[in-house]
Amino acid sequence: MNTAASAAMTRRDYAWHRMDNDRNLMVINSILLFEGPVDMERLVSTIAHRLPNYPRFRQKVVRLGGRPHWVEDEAFDIRSHIRLERMEHEVTRAGLQDQLMRLAHLPLERDRPLWHMTVLDRVNGGHAIVFRVHHCITDGLGLVHVLNHLTDDNGLHGRTPSPDGHPHRAVAHNPVCSAVVRGVRWLKIAAHVTRLSMLWPDAPTQFKAPMTGDKQLVWLPPLELERVRAMSKRMGVTLNDVWVAAVSGALRTYLSERGQRPDGRALRAAVTFNLREKGNAFQLGNEFGLVAVDLPTDIDAPHRRLQLASSRMTAIKRSCQPRATMAFLSIAGCLPAALQRFALNLFTSKGSVVLTNIEGPASRRYLAGSRLTDLICWVPQAGRLGVGLAFISYAGQIQLALFVDTALVPDPDRLMRLTYDAFEELEAATQGVLAPQPAEPALPGHVWAQTTILK
């Protein structure tokens, strides 16, 4: 084994590496839909030429000297990571969903780099690629960077990628701060970790039932990004605030239809919060926190739900909670596996669902000359969480996706439909509502740093 080509794995990424269990695989599942037939030789050649710029996709996880390392896979073969499955007939949406569910239950092979592409050759008049990446390699923003690097902005396919955003040309800028500032920040982080660990477990709805590990992935036709953006601008909120409010409305209706009282305790969600500079996305790894948000599921008025979602997310952005949960994952990666599982189960008992949004490519992309029409991504869940909702923007549209344990959500298509309807309900309810006026600027010495997720 060539240990010279190894690099120490961060404790945070190692924590993600060890989160797999028999009910939740820590794998980011995504599907890329393309026009036209697939040219496998061209596709494999393109990926083989571009993907090695990211060493993690040629490395496997090995313990050296008692610590986990990324080590070059000397037996690496790109064709063992890209497999063509020829379909006997044209695959419908239902058929594609069946293929996705089959693949989503398969663990990635631990003795090789933790990613895989399955190419389906007859899907809706074109072809599809199911791209599966273990979360220890990267987060959503890093994955989008990889997709941008693999693809082109036009159909004139060439072997050499554009230098823009090339991993070997990007420069990371590390912030410099004093020991006093670092010390104060770590004290705040410790306080937030303590507070999160002492939260009461979330409301005992059907979303907290025991899981079976039987998963289902669903999605709907995309929303127009401009419609949602117009609503967010009209109300003076972010796209993520609209997303949180819409999901809250959908969960409220879903529970109400099943005879559970939505006006009692609000459900709590683990919402992903990006802490990475976009210019450093090429470094991959995981640079985000999971923040605990009380969803306004106990509020009936849609516009009021949006206001509460926005105010709660703004308060979290101004706190150390995102960095606290990221620090918690680093600490978890230092613990024995059994203690990490205990700590993870303790934290995930505080919420019912995982929410994420990903800012995808703004314009159309092409892979090996084929036009990418749709990009869908599903967020994995960890510990005792079994419901994950995600949206990803791509080329002027927003794609909603739901990944659930069917013991918790036996009819995920209904919950997905309610989420779609909740966006339309919000749009109608906020048409005549004036956004609140911005507050007076803070006095010097009281300025808070704010990190936006997706504007």
What does this structure look like?
This protein has 11 helices and 16 strands. It is α+β, with helices and mostly antiparallel strands and 455 residues long. The protein folds into 2 domains: 144 residues, 2-Layer Sandwich (Chloramphenicol Acetyltransferase), CATH 3.30.559.10; 229 residues, Nonribosomal peptide synthetase, condensation domain (Chloramphenicol Acetyltransferase), CATH 3.30.559. Strands 8, 9, 10, 11, 12, 15 and 16 form a 7-stranded mixed sheet that branches. A 6-stranded mixed sheet has the order 5-6-7-2-14-13, sandwiched between helices. Strand 3 and strand 4 form a beta hairpin. It comes from Duganella callida. This is diacylglycerol O-acyltransferase. One of its GO terms (cellular component) is plasma membrane. Belongs to the long-chain O-acyltransferase family. GO terms for molecular function: diacylglycerol O-acyltransferase activity.
Summarize the structure.
The protein is α+β, with helices and mostly antiparallel strands and 455 residues long. The protein has helices spanning 11-17, 40-50, 93-104, 140-150, 179-197, 225-235, 239-257, 302-317, 321-332, 337-348, 412-429; strands spanning 7-8, 27-35, 59-64, 67-72, 82-85, 115-123, 126-134, 215-219, 223-224, 268-274, 288-294, 353-359, 366-367, 370-378, 387-394, 397-405.
